[in-house]
């Protein structure tokens, strides 16, 4: 599963290169950060749903067809997107609250010509 700007194995890579020039792009950067945090929550929920689905499968006479597996994966992906958009678990909001001060500090450091790594 791949979500906009989010790698399956390294969700944090989506945060890389979010800094722009210091000329009023802070609103744009905050929106990007909020979007990435929402995507991370969607990824987390999707993995959670996948784990729950694997644990709830039963061994029986009927085998799950390939179509049922694909449908289940698509259903879980869509459900995870909807839940993340609503902020159902609040993970995206918590991440945003944790990371936004670092983004602001980096933007201020860029404006002052300092090294953003030292400012955060």
Shape: rod-shaped
Q: Write down how many β-strands occur, each being a DSSP E stretch of 2 or more residues.
A: 0
Low-confidence stretches: 1-23
Q: Strand portion, in percent?
A: under 5%
Main sheet properties = none
Q: Which structural class matches the secondary elements?
A: mainly alpha
Mean pLDDT: 76
Radius of gyration: 19 Å
Distance between the termini: 32 Å
Order of helices and strands: HHHH
Helix fraction bin = 55-70%
Compute the number of helices. Answer: 4
Number of domains: 1
Description of the molecule:
With 120 residues, the protein is mostly helical. The chain has one domain. The chain is built from four helices and no strands. It has helices at residues 26-56, 66-86, 91-112, 116-119. Helix 1 (26-56) packs across helix 2 and helix 1 (26-56) runs antiparallel to helix 3 (91-112). The longest helix is centred in the middle third of the chain and has 31 residues, at 26-56. It starts with 25 loop residues before the first helix and ends with a helix. The model is unreliable at 1-23 (pLDDT under 50).
List its salient traits.
mainly alpha, 120 residues
């Amino acid at each position: 599963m791949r979500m906009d700007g989010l790698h399956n194995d390294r969700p944090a890579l989506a945060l890389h290169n979010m800094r722009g020039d210091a000329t009023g792009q802070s609103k744009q950067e905050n929106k990007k950060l909020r979007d990435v945090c929402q995507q991370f929550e969607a990824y987390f929920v999707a993995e959670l749903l996948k784990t729950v689905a694997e644990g709830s499968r039963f061994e029986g006479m009927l085998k799950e067809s390939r179509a049922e597996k694909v449908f289940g994966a698509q259903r879980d992906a869509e459900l995870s997107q909807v839940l993340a958009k609503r902020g159902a678990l609040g993970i995206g909001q918590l991440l945003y609250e944790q990371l936004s001060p670092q983004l602001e500090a980096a933007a201020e450091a860029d404006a002052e010509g300092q090294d953003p790594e030292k400012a955060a």
